[in-house]
Design a protein that fits this description.
Blueprint: H1 2-15, H2 20-42, H3 65-79, H4 86-97, H5 102-109, H6 113-133, H7 139-142
Helix pairs in contact: 2-3, 2-6, 3-6, 4-6
């Protein structure tokens, strides 16, 4: 009985479509939390892997927070690659990955509020599609939990 219920729930979830922007927002929230935890735990920037000398690789079936950070960044890079989207990549790296405050990032890039909204919507849509394609959404599924 329990297997049948789980199968039915799984099929219902597969039918449910998620907007890429929603997937991006959820994944970015997890990314920010993961960065915060990694930085607090180690006292280093999560993206500076060279500093983490104590780490030694061991086979593990479940992804870790640092895997999430790397996969989120790689998904964004893949979604925004190409010279026609180079400026969007800069915004993605500065604001979404680097967690630079909005006003500083907007001033640095020289964007009006309207341009910021247009660019960030494009980033959220493109990156959200890539996150869905790479199965980073839902995060529970990525981390090996029941979907």
């Amino acid at each position: 009985m329990k297997e049948a219920e789980e199968e039915e729930r799984r099929r219902a979830e597969e039918k449910m479509s998620v907007k890429p922007e929603m997937a991006f927002d959820v994944c970015w929230e997890v990314y920010r939390g993961a960065r915060e935890v990694l930085e607090a735990k180690r006292g280093i920037t999560a993206l500076t892997w060279e500093v983490d000398a104590k780490y030694s690789w061991r086979p593990d079936l479940r992804p870790k927070l640092k895997d999430w950070v790397a996969d989120f960044a790689l998904a964004g890079q893949a979604a925004l690659e190409g010279p026609e989207r180079a400026s969007r990549m800069v915004l993605f790296r500065l604001y979404y990955l680097g967690l630079t405050p909005y006003e500083r990032a907007r001033h640095f890039l020289g964007l009006s509020e309207r341009s910021w909204v247009n660019w960030s919507e494009e980033i959220r849509r493109r990156c959200g599609e890539e996150l869905l394609r790479r199965d980073l959404f839902p995060p529970k599924k990525y981390f090996g939990g029941a979907s």
